[in-house]
Structures are given as structure tokens and as C-alpha cells.
Design a protein that fits this description.
The chain has helices at 20-30, 44-47, 66-74, 84-90, 125-133, 152-168, 190-203, 221-231, 247-259, 270-273, 277-293, 297-304; strands at 37-41, 79-83, 99-102, 138-145, 172-177, 207-210, 236-240, 265-268. It is an alpha/beta fold and 312 residues long.
């Protein structure tokens, strides 16, 4: 995977002239000088409460929040995404990590059958700038939108305003966009996911995280993803990692999402942090080998198995 130069970074027109150099620097940091994003998603402590961090099949190391930062420090990641308080609690001890502050969140206790999902903004943009001013290596912000929810207008408006503020300050924005609510009959419909990707572009996001579409006899999930990656235009599309699966299965899915589906990276959480520190670190390297260096599945699997090393 060839490295990109600062001159090759496409800067959106809403980035202020004073912030252009900061935007380019943050973009290169987040993508590890490749233009692709390896996002380590650590926002589930609110989203899924403790269900993703303690229980059957989850390594006991994941019970402690610092496990996330140990992985981010020892592994190979583009950004570690988490809520402002989580980042603030540990960032001084792990200053080398690139952070993305998740601006909104909700728990999974209230089901869609009870009420359509709404993830309210929890953090002001000024509070994020305070982290930056205090020396925390924040390169961007993130926000979740549930398209199809009766509350989508609030989330769209909040996201649009945050994107304008972030770009004015030279920060990147990643949108999590999931069609969800009583109006949505199939969250994994490829056409609907493509619509979500296009919405992210129109809001001005730099990257959009979507669930991979559901494959069928006519086309695989990766083949169906092409519609969404095309609809995203200059907004880089990355796929959510989902629940933990065997490493070889996950790495094959990732390779296909990038090389068949046109994705610009990955956004992985549980598949990484539910493992022991050593295994999780090796998996970040294997994932990054595919995402950031165009390794084959076989060569990336050798990295995960400890038969080869990977660094940038």
C-alpha cells in the first residue's frame, strides 16, 4: 500500500484556511499515511453496557477498561474511538494513541419495539477542544445516526453542526450510520445501507461506518457493498466488525470488503478487545496489515498467528 503525501490529502472546502495544516496532519495520523482508516471502536461501554466486556467467551482482561488502551498502545491502529470521559481518564498515560471522541451514545436497554432509537449528543465541541488544548492527541470526532428513526432529524442536525465545527478546527469526522427504527424493515438491506453512505457524504463526514449488507444467492455481502462504497463518494466507507468470530473468518471478510466491496478500511471493536492482550495486539497488526498495507489474507493470518510481525 503506497503512502500518501500531505499534498495528496484532499481537504474539504469547509476546513478553514487556518486549520488546513492541522486537518492534513490529523488525516495522515488517523490513516497512518495511507488514506485508509483502521478504527479501533471502544464506545461499547455505553452502547452495550458491560455485556461486551465480561462473560462467557470474553477474556477476563477485558473486564478492566485499561485493556482497551493497552491494546491501542501496543497494537497497530489508526484511531481509538471512545467517549470523552473514557479518553480523558486514560489519555495522559497513553499519549501516543490517536483518539477519536465519540460525541453521542445510548444504551441498548430500550428496544426498538418500545421506542425508536435516539442517541443524544453528550459532549459539547468545546469540551473536545479542551482535551486538545490539554495536549490530548485528538484527531477527530464521531457521531451515530439512526436513519429511519422518528428522531433522525435531531441526529442529522446535531451531526451536521458538529461536522462544521470539527472541520473549522481541523479535526476529522467519522459518522456511524445505521438504518434502524420501526420504519425500517431490513437493517442489512444493501440499497438502504448505500443510502446511509450517501447521507454521510452530504453531511460532510470524512468517513462513514456502516454495517455490511446481507449477502444472498445472487451476490455476496462484499459484492453488495459496492453500491454503498460508490454512494459514499469522497467519504471513505468502513464496515463495522460485529460480534467476535474466528480470526481467519474475520480477516477474509475484511479483505473482501476492501478489495471487492470498495471499503476504505475497517471499524472493529469486540473482535479485538474481547481477546487477551497478546492475542488482541496480534489481531490489530493482522487487521492493519490488510487495511493499511494490502497484505493477503494468508500473510495477515501469519501475523495473527505470530509467525510474522507487522509494523508501520
Amino acid at each position: 500500500m503506497p503512502k500518501i503525501t500531505p499534498e495528496q490529502v484532499r481537504v474539504p472546502a469547509d476546513v478553514s484556511a487556518e486549520a488546513r495544516s492541522a486537518y492534513v496532519e490529523n488525516y495522515l495520523k488517523a490513516t497512518r499515511n495511507t488514506g485508509r482508516l483502521m478504527l479501533f471502536a471502544c464506545d461499547q461501554k455505553i452502547e452495550h453496557l458491560n455485556g461486551d466486556f465480561f462473560g462467557e467467551g470474553i477474556n477476563i482482561a477485558d473486564a478492566k477498561p485499561e485493556h482497551l488502551f493497552e491494546i491501542g498502545s501496543k497494537g497497530v491502529c489508526g484511531v481509538l474511538a471512545g467517549q470523552r470521559g473514557l479518553v480523558a481518564a486514560y489519555a495522559n498515560d497513553y499519549p501516543e494513541i490517536n483518539y477519536l471522541v465519540k460525541m453521542n451514545s445510548k444504551t441498548n436497554l430500550i428496544k426498538t419495539s418500545q421506542d425508536d432509537p435516539y442517541s443524544p449528543q453528550l459532549t459539547s465541541f468545546e469540551a473536545v477542544l479542551e482535551l486538545v488544548n490539554n495536549g490530548v492527541n485528538v484527531v477527530g470526532i464521531g457521531y451515530t445516526i439512526y436513519l429511519g428513526s422518528e428522531y433522525e432529524s435531531q441526529m442529522l442536525a446535531e451531526a451536521a453542526e458538529l461536522i462544521a465545527q470539527a472541520h473549522a478546527a481541523g479535526l476529522l469526522v467519522v459518522l456511524w450510520i445505521y438504518p434502524r427504527g420501526k420504519a425500517v424493515t431490513d437493517e442489512k438491506d444493501a440499497h438502504l445501507i448505500a443510502g446511509a453512505a450517501g447521507a454521510a457524504l452530504c453531511l460532510g463526514a470524512d468517513f462513514v461506518k456502516v454495517n455490511p449488507p446481507k449477502g444472498d444467492d445472487a451476490a455476496s455481502s462484499a459484492e453488495k457493498l459496492l453500491e454503498a462504497s460508490s454512494a459514499a463518494g469522497r467519504c471513505g466507507l468502513v464496515c463495522a466488525g460485529g460480534s467476535t468470530v474466528e480470526a481467519d473468518v474475520f480477516l477474509k471478510q475484511l479483505w473482501e470488503q476492501i478489495h471487492i466491496g470498495g471499503a476504505h478500511g475497517n471499524a472493529t471493536g469486540r473482535n479485538i478487545h474481547q481477546r487477551s492482550l497478546d492475542e488482541a495486539v496480534r489481531l490489530t497488526k493482522a487487521i492493519s496489515a490488510i487495511t493499511l498495507a494490502d497484505y493477503s489474507v494468508e500473510d495477515a493470518l501469519a501475523v495473527f498467528e505470530g509467525k510474522a510481525d507487522f509494523s508501520l
